[in-house]
């Protein structure tokens, strides 16, 4: 006798059969598989917006028998043929959304009605959402002074890298990614230390690097001249504009190479400012030491707060996810109401 359990072979049809045995009026449970532990909180936040008295979700990893995870496991290996009205997959878009069906993974992400994706490259991009970053600094330092204009900086950053981003997408769509890969792209836009008092200097240096790389790509791929403009316009239709490009580049690159170091620098400025204020206002050394200890106990590492924040829910990409999930739930609720009516009539 095999050691395999029935629950290891769950699929949407199995869950649907179980749902039909539920009491009339009880909530319909839909399983939502995600790629990794880190994704559970994000997708729980998304799905909680659409849960109601008829529908609820349970977010889990795609394998009950191993720690295997990742997009391929979530939508291909483990869930092949198993998705349906009672079982969905929630994944990072990566470049698959922008590839628009060029490749098997992209076709699944773009066309399968039971696969929901982030539109932005990954969850890390939402954590880097510019309007939320001041709030992250406040959470990390308990200092509400706006010491840096994150929105202006990331807008300028995005405008500068946008032409090179289009080139990167072109390389992936045409199979030339080995010549100019995501890693190559990241090596161009990684900023290093930014002077938060003169951020325009970092943007100027970045602009020179981007222009040099574009000149090299134009010499390397002269055949791309006609395709480039059409691709740029297509990306705009998909939501990628010059000013929001940072939401669509590889998530851990924008997080690790740009936003996290920048937020850390701003938080250091705010933390030192708060500590100087405590030293200035303390009436004696004992009070100063007590207040400093209390403050240092209350603050948190900026990278931790960056990963735990949820100030991105007004991002256009996030609203797009919600629209997709709401449309799915609306259809499910209509089917559930019909099933409940059928049960009532049979009685």
What does this structure look like?
- With 347 residues, the protein is an alpha/beta fold.
- Helices cover 59% and strands 6% of the residues.
- It is built from 15 helices and four strands.
- The chain has a four-stranded parallel β-sheet with strand order 2-1-3-4, with helices on both faces.
- Strand 1 (28-34), helix 2 (37-48) and strand 2 form a beta-alpha-beta unit.
- Helix 12 (251-281) packs antiparallel against helix 13.
- The longest helix is centred in the last third of the chain and has 31 residues, at 251-281.
- The radius of gyration is 24 Å and the shape is flat.
- It starts with 11 loop residues before the first helix and ends with a helix.
Report the total helices: 15
Helix content: 55-70%
What is the CA-based Rg, rounded? 24 Å
Instruction: Give me the count of strands.
Output: 4
Q: Overall mean pLDDT score?
A: 88
* Oligomeric nature of the chains: single chain
Major sheet, described briefly? Answer: 4 strands, parallel
Shape: flat
> Ranges with pLDDT <50 over ≥5 residues?
1-8
- Strand % is 5-15%
